[in-house]
């Protein structure tokens, strides 16, 4: 399989936002990568997303079983469920660090926008298991094994959930990690929107690019990161600043 780097990392490029194919120049990666292209069924959006995340889970599992640290780069956060499921298929029981300006803890009942990416973390924690977790064979993560990092742009329903759920929230400069192997998920919109133009859902008041990169490096230095999942949630167009940020994250 191509895309293997000297450090034992394979970069999997998943050029999709939900089930929509992105233009090739909207997700530009430095160096070699393996592009994941699923076979989509004629079905519901959730059936199509199950095919996409299932394809991701398959390549992540294969790579992890070979002793590598897979890195998945996609256009939205739902793909992270495939990354988590892939590690589980490889026999790991990962915790989760979720770097994101948004909570992503909506359910179908609480979302006001209908944006499915806003359910991503909540799905990983066990909501609506019939939609993705069931088809993927994903075991929902115990809430004490997940950390929401710098989630600041929250809807009222998300605020209410976070107030009572026990999900830990932390800033990028004061991280306490779950035990065991980790999935490190980074939505680039965790960075202050003043530094990163073109985001689908910009959020001001966040950490700098440098702060996020330092936090990522500290997490990686533990040696416990079993997979990295990066969501490039900018609009489907070339964006030099976003591409530079993605390259810096991958260089970490």
TrEMBL record:
GO molecular function terms attached to this record: arginase activity; manganese ion binding
Top-rank taxon, per record: Bacteria
Alphabetical UniProt keywords: Hydrolase, Manganese, Metal-binding
Gene3D superfamilies: Ureohydrolase domain
A Pfam family the protein falls into: Arginase
InterPro entries assigned: Ureohydrolase (IPR006035), Ureohydrolase_dom_sf (IPR023696)
GO cellular component, one term: cytosol
Similarity field: Belongs to the arginase family.
Entry-linked PANTHER family: ARGINASE (PTHR43782:SF3)
Protein name: Arginase
The organism of origin for this protein: Asanoa ferruginea
Upper taxonomic lineage: Bacteria, Bacillati, Actinomycetota, Actinomycetes, Micromonosporales
């Amino acid at each position: 399989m191509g895309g293997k780097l000297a450090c034992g990392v394979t970069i999997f490029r998943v050029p999709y936002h939900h089930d929509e194919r992105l233009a090739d120049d909207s997700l530009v990666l430095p160096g070699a990568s393996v592009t994941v292209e699923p076979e989509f069924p004629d079905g519901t959006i959730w059936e199509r997303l199950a095919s996409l995340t299932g394809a991701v889970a398959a390549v992540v599992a294969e790579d992890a079983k070979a002793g590598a640290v897979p890195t998945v780069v996609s256009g939205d956060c739902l793909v992270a469920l495939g990354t988590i499921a892939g590690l589980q298929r490889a026999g790991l029981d990962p915790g989760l660090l979720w770097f994101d300006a948004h909570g992503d803890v909506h359910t179908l009942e609480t979302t006001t926008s209908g944006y499915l990416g806003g359910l991503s973390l909540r799905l990983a924690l066990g909501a609506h298991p019939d939609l993705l977790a069931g088809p993927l064979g994903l075991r929902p993560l115990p809430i004490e094994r997940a950390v929401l990092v710098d989630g600041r742009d929250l809807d009222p329903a998300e605020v209410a959930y976070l107030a009572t759920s026990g999900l830990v929230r932390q800033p990028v400069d004061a991280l306490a990690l779950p035990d065991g192997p980790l999935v490190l998920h980074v939505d680039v919109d965790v960075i202050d929107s003043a530094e990163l133009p073109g985001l689908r859902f910009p959020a001001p008041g966040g950490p700098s690019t440098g702060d996020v990169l330092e936090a990522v490096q500290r997490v990686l230095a533990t040696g416990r990161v079993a997979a990295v999942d990066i969501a490039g949630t900018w609009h489907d167009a070339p964006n030099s600043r976003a591409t530079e940020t993605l390259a810096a994250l991958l260089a970490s």
